[in-house]
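Teaching assistant here, posting this on the class forum so everyone can see the example we discussed in section. The complex has two components, and the goal was to see what a joint structure prediction looks like when all of them are supplied at once.
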Amino acid sequence: MVRKELLKNEQIERVLSPHPLSFMKLQTLCIFVIVWGIVVWWLTGFSEYAGTFSGSNWYPVILWGLVLLLIGVIASLVAIQWTIFFLYLGVFLGAVGLIFWQHWENDIELFIFIYSIAVSIVGFLIVEAYRRSHKYIITNLRIIFKGGIFTKRERTIRYDKIADIDAKQGVLGQIFGFGTIIPVSQSGFGLGSDKTMAAGGVEVGGAKARFFGFAGGGKEIQTPIARSYYELHGVYPYKDVKQLVEDLVQSHVPTQYQKEQVEFQKQQVDIQTQMRDLLHKQVSDKPRRKAVKQSVEEEEEEETEEEEVVEKVTRKKTAVPEEGFPPEQVDIQQQMKDLLKKQKTVRVNPPEEEDIEEEEIDEDAEDSRKEKEGT
Amino acid sequence: MANVPLNFDVLFVAALAPILGVAAFWFLQLFIIEIQKRMLSRLRHRHEAFCRFTNYIGILFQTISQALGYSVTRSGIASFQVTVNYGKVEPKKEKEGIFEWIARSFLLFGPFFIPAGLVLLVSFFVIGRGFVFLSPVQYTFVESLTVFWGSLSTFAYEWAGFLCNVDFFNPLHIGFFVVLLFFGLGIRPSYIGQERKEKIDILYDLIHIKDHLLEKPLYIIAIVLLLYVFYLLSLFLNPVVYVGLFIIFGWMSLTAIIAILLTFPVLLLIKSTDVIQPHWKIIPFITVAVSYIVARVFFIYFPTNEVERVSLLAMLFSTILVTIVLIKYKRTNRFKTTPKMKPMRVADGKKRTSKK
């Protein structure tokens, strides 16, 4: 499956999935539901405070629901993720709906206990399915991230596009040896900012809302943050994977020498392209092909005999008008000559040469220019 | 002022009695910690994550103690960092002299008593019994020692009663038991490093403490003098105060010892399951929970006295039995090595197999 998606000369280094405990934040939500359900069952049915809740059948549900929603709000504010609150709200409303539907008002304590366990098990299964939907493929050219249960998401990042690597390892990660690695791309993918806000209105007395409770928090600082299917989330063994990714990124980052070489080659290509264009332009004008040949031959001679460059240029300059070339052709020939000079200058100035040599060449170029100007 | 016959014993020797009592329990604590550390270091190669977890708790307490030392001496805390392998606290101000010495004392002695003190505080609310300060009558050395021992034995008796009747169907008891195990795995001053280090043992700790104490003998003399003044004041005002102070330290040591002793069956169970085949080694752990639940449900339909105690016994008995049976019939291959055996290859690149 994976091999079909590979590029030419691409090889798989590692195929990874998140560690089973790496989604502990989501699993904690399920654990809390199960623990709180058991506590409520014990508190309202078996503890010494059981009599306090004997006034109404609905007291256990109210206690259970209020604490659940309160924890949901706190967790949402802390984690800056309101999904938690709505998830708990859904669990609470589901319980109330089931009680009304099936008329389980008389066995509410037992219902809360069983319902909490059932909901938690479903939650654990969903988290596990979500975890298993993730797949990270580290190849020698790029990292492929895949994830999502219903909507399949995929991200690919090439190593030469990675600007920064953010790595984090929590306490559980340190104990079990897993951690999260976020490759931040040059475009800033992998960075994000968090913001949350909570507000509530309370009606006191009249028909209008007289009092408003307001709470909120925001983080505008850019931090490395990404969805679990856009980062190497909870990968094991963390240290090895981090080392591998860093090595691959390093191997794709060009060194200073390589950069200079690339720049040099670019210049060469530009010059050659321009020359080709000029030649095309010249060749398209048939009656003057001879003149073109003549000029090209002269240019070749220039390359071989560096000392006579200035003399030949002067001769050509004087010769062209004598043969009656039109001004356009003269311009083309002049441009080509300049390009050849430029190319020659680039060649004699390789990027790795020392500054002293460069200075000498500059001096020579200046001398020749002066001589040219003199002629 | 208490009606006390002022003789040499009462004036000088009796003051040493509770100190000696605390020292004795502290040495016992050190000894049990040492046994636990050795058990953990033997488990390390197979249960790296578990040892990292216990390390983390130990380092956390150690770092908290150090931070507390800097807070008490008003040095301030510039940075606080706890990882699985090390803890780091940096003070805002580098103080010298007595402040530095006190901060270092917190680092050395804190891990023995601070987590134990926290457990003691929780146990006060959960158990609520056994916190008795007995008062001496004659104020002699022997009587002070007897009073110290009496308070601690009452405390230990109540603890034993709680542990024998612990109700795992009570969330409060479950929570407290988890806290006990959690703290029991971390109440130790030195840690088991990333690599196994033999030198970090009881002697290593004691040598460090001895060096620390001998480093500033004047401070020790000052502390002894302060304690003696405190003893004299309490002798004439309320003698229970002086003995009571050391009784609290004794309770802390005893709590730490109980917490560590409770971890021994867990460590033993982990070690025992190592010799069971991989797919079967989970069975003893499941038996722990299932046997207790079955016993409790059974006693709902057949009510009897001492339900919790009998259920606990049933749990322990069935777990031991199941583990022994599995060790006998589902023992793992003894010759299995920890590193995986890579397929051997000959020079031509073909796998060497036993089949021909």
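For the discussion questions: Chain A is about 55% helix and 15% strand. Residues 30 and 120 of chain A are 5 Å apart (CA to CA). Think about how each of these relates to the inputs above.
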